[in-house]
Specification:
Layout (H helix, E strand, L loop, with lengths): L37 E6 L2 H12 L3 H30 L9 H5 L6 E3 L12 H7 L8 E2 L5 E2 L3 E7 L11
Helix pairs in contact: 1-2
Length: 170
């Protein structure tokens, strides 16, 4: 295993409550022991975007909304599937709730933090993620605005700490 720093992210800290930031869920470098950082990037590919654009151009707005929404939801489902696989690989999937409803209520260990949301708001940090993995292998690129293309794609930092739940930071 690699025991050198490959990249570094900076996350905002809550200004109230527990004053959390994502970094709190990882070992400090000062401990001298490496920790695990899982990252993911998934996509539904370009074809669903093309279909949605065709429907929009044909003024078939309801069909466009259905196709676009389907692509977005499938990307989220794929991200959840890989999040589950990461928990299995780490040996912590046994902490998952028993039903799909439990999963919707985040009754599993850890969290999947996507760029652009409260706990890691900087979309620019996707450049760091892109240095860690090879998104070209699944035909995903980063736009000048640091958005994923194709649109029906999502990326995240997957945190395995038992106390890692979603929170807002400023």
């Amino acid at each position: 295993p690699l025991e050198r720093e490959l990249a570094r992210f900076s996350f905002p800290r809550q200004d109230r409550g527990r004053f959390l930031c994502i970094s709190d869920f990882f070992r400090s470098v000062d401990e001298g022991r490496p920790d695990v950082l899982a990252v993911q990037l998934v996509t539904m590919g370009r074809r669903i975007s093309e279909i949605a654009a065709e429907l929009f151009a044909e003024d078939k707005y309801q069909d466009y909304l259905f196709a676009h929404g389907f692509g977005v939801e499938m990307a989220e489902a794929l991200a959840e599937y890989w999040h589950r696989r990461i928990r299995e690989d780490l040996g912590i999937a046994g902490d998952d709730g028993a039903t799909a409803q439990d999963w919707f209520r985040q009754q599993y260990r850890g969290s999947r933090y996507s760029f652009g949301y409260a706990a890691c708001p900087r979309l620019e940090d996707q450049e760091i993620l892109f240095r860690l993995i090879d998104p070209s292998a699944i035909d995903v690129v980063l736009t000048e605005e640091f958005m994923l293309d194709p649109e029906q794609s999502t990326s995240a930092i997957v945190v395995h700490h038992p106390e890692a739940k979603y929170f807002n930071a400023r």
